[in-house]
Design a protein that fits this description.
Oligomer: heterodimer
Number of helices of chain A: 0
Order of helices and strands of chain B: EEEEEEEEEEE
Shape of chain B: globular
Radius of gyration of chain A: 14 Å
Largest interface: A-B, 24 and 30 residues
Structural class of chain B: mainly beta
Order of helices and strands of chain A: EEEEEEEEEEEE
Number of strands of chain A: 12
Helix content of chain B: under 10%
Shape of chain A: globular
Strand content of chain A: over 45%
Structural class of chain A: mainly beta
Number of strands of chain B: 11
Helix content of chain A: under 10%
Chain lengths: 116, 114
């Protein structure tokens, strides 16, 4: 079945450090891939997405490239800020799953803490 | 502004009680979902509904019930049969029929058994 595996946390970085959070997936077809972010005590917000192989999603300095050959969608940012501290979730939506077209399969989340 | 509203933000339940979590959206989305979040386990799907008066069980439906009488509303009842209900509950919606959909989430309800 469909599943997402992402890097275990927590991740602790100093401000302006480089960030990578690894994400790999298993899916039956050609899924859409997402990164969601959750700030403390809040719901999830879409950070970026990619809908086909080799697409690069980007937003707020974050980037992720849809790599079909390695079934990966790693999140990167060149210089993190304290305000980036949050939990990051990798997710997929598999259009071949019949009636649950919008249903998301989530990874376990990675807690990121950035120190000044 | 369009969005999803969950209430209450915090909810306390005594053993053996049923409680209902509210979820309302004004995005005109057909599909709505309930997820449960536990520390270190990501989000797990409880129930989903793609159209009014229809809903399906997700991965962890036991001990929960839902209704979808109106397009805008998808309340979740946590029954006394749910043995470990303490968790953070998130409601979401998507426009049905769009494969590359972005899900919109509410702010969540934190349920605690006392």
């Amino acid at each position: 079945g469909d599943s997402v595996t992402q890097m275990e946390g927590p991740v602790t970085l100093s401000e302006e450090a480089f960030l990578t959070i690894n994400c790999t997936y298993t899916a039956t077809g050609y899924p859409s891939l997402f990164w969601y972010v959750q700030y403390p005590g809040e719901g999830l917000q879409l950070l970026l997405k990619a809908t086909k192989a080799d697409d690069k999603g980007s937003n707020k300095g974050f980037e992720a490239t849809y790599r079909k050959e390695t079934t990966s969608f790693h999140l990167e940012k060149g210089s993190v800020q304290v305000s980036d501290s949050a939990v990051y979730f990798c997710a997929l939506s598999d259009p071949n799953r019949g009636s649950t077209l919008g249903r998301l399969y989530f990874g376990r989340g990675t807690q990121l803490t950035v120190w000044p | 502004d369009g969005g999803i509203t969950q209430s209450p933000k915090y909810l306390f339940r005594k053993e053996g009680q049923n409680v209902t979590l509210s979820c309302e959206q004004n995005l005109n989305h057909d599909a709505m979902y309930w997820y449960r979040q536990d520390p270190g386990q990501g989000l797990r799907l409880i129930y989903y509904s793609q159209i009014v008066n229809d809903f399906q069980k997700g991965d962890i439906a036991e001990g929960y019930s839902v209704s979808r009488e109106k397009k805008e509303s998808f309340p979740l009842t946590v029954t006394s049969a749910q043995k470990n209900p303490t968790a953070f509950y998130l409601c979401a919606s998507t426009p049905t029929g769009h494969m590359n959909t972005e899900a919109f989430f509410g702010q969540g309800t934190r349920l605690t058994v006392v």
